[in-house]
Write a structure and sequence with these properties.
9-stranded mixed β-sheet; 339 residues; two-stranded antiparallel sheet; alpha/beta; Glucose Oxidase, domain 1
Length: 339
């Protein structure tokens, strides 16, 4: 196991956008993109509230061919992980070799029925994943005014408010792929800033619209490229700019009443920020803290994108519910798109 990563650990650091007053450090002032109180003072689900029984029934009608696509990378040591997190580590505790060496040595004793058993040690955001609303903030408050003291390292749990378990039965509904990579001709410059205009142009070319309660998925090609990198390229990857959305996408997300937004990148947003390069992923503050919008990262979109291009349908039913991990600030996920 790679110390100091804990078994199925919860990363509690806030991303440290700033310790200044609430309205100061984000690229968009809190008042400009504030959605606090929209679903009451005690709401812990945020924009997931836009996914209603009605939107789910409508999304189910998108299933026509029964084709399914996993949007998850392999959960192993080979995928990209945002530093300082470590890759997942999978280990066996009981194997067939153990029985061959000594039938009585296995933990269940000598028996005609034999078992294999294994563990995985990983950061919860060390693969295809969702960020919970408790994952990032600025100032001293999280979404809906929850104090940062609600995020603890011991005692009553980790995220005593806004944990990922609040959407264990959600983040399921109409998914929309915005294939920026295809729209731009199949390649993007290193560190390309994806603007609102880029998203809208790609949607127009796809003849697709974004609706209230949608889960938007943005394709850039960054995660697939990782698997073709040499060891030297991987070692220098995080010292270079990374493609992602820019600050003008935040008001668009608010206007469209999007429930969640994911991408095949490691941070969703451009790194470093195109406006405030000294700040660590500041749009996480706007999206998670101010708008209550869930962020998905390190998704795999290649097979889905190829099928969407083939049939011209960029909308689908998406089942991307997180694991029911009490007090977690994120969760691995195996999103399934069904067309």
């Amino acid at each position: 196991m790679r110390a100091p990563v804990l078994a199925i650990s919860i990363l509690l650091g806030s991303l440290a956008l700033s310790a200044a007053a609430d309205s100061g450090p984000a690229l968009h002032p809190h008042e400009a993109v504030n959605r606090w109180g929209a679903w009451g003072p005690d709401d812990e689900r945020g924009a997931a509230n836009y996914i209603t029984p009605e939107t789910l029934v409508a999304a189910a009608a998108l299933i026509q061919s029964g084709k399914t696509f996993s949007l998850a990378i392999p959960l192993d040591e080979t995928g990209p992980v945002f530093p300082p997190r470590q890759p997942p580590h999978h280990t066996m505790t009981v194997t067939g070799a153990d029985y061959l060496a000594d039938p009585k040595a296995a933990p269940f004793g000598e028996s005609p029925i034999r078992f294999a058993d294994d563990y995985i040690y990983m950061p919860l955001q060390g693969s295809s994943q969702w960020d919970a609303l408790s994952h990032a903030w600025y100032g001293d408050t999280l979404y809906n005014g929850v104090p940062e003291s609600a995020i603890r390292s011991s005692g009553a749990g980790a995220a005593t408010k806004l944990g990922i378990e609040n959407v264990k039965d959600s983040l399921v509904g109409r998914g929309v792929l915005i294939d920026v990579l295809r729209h731009k001709g199949g390649s993007l410059p290193e560190g390309y800033p994806i603007t609102r205009a880029d998203l809208e142009a790609a949607l127009a070319a796809q003849k697709t619209e974004v609706r209230e309660g949608d889960i938007v998925v943005v394709r850039t090609g960054l995660v697939p490229a990782w698997y073709d990198f040499t060891p030297e390229q991987k070692a220098g990857f995080f010292a270079k700019p990374q493609t992602g959305i820019t600050s003008d996408v935040v008001p668009w997300v608010k206007e469209k009443k999007i429930a969640a937004i994911a991408a095949d990148t490691l941070a969703l947003e451009r790194v470093p920020s195109e406006i405030a390069p000294e700040m660590v992923v500041p749009l996480h503050g706007n999206l998670l803290r101010d708008l209550g919008v869930y962020i998905g990262e390190i998704w795999w979109l290649e097979e889905l994108a190829a099928d969407c291009a083939a049939d011209g349908r960029y909308e689908f039913f998406l089942a991307a519910q997180p694991l029911n991990i009490t007090g977690a600030v994120g969760s691995p996920v195996n999103p399934i798109a069904i067309k």
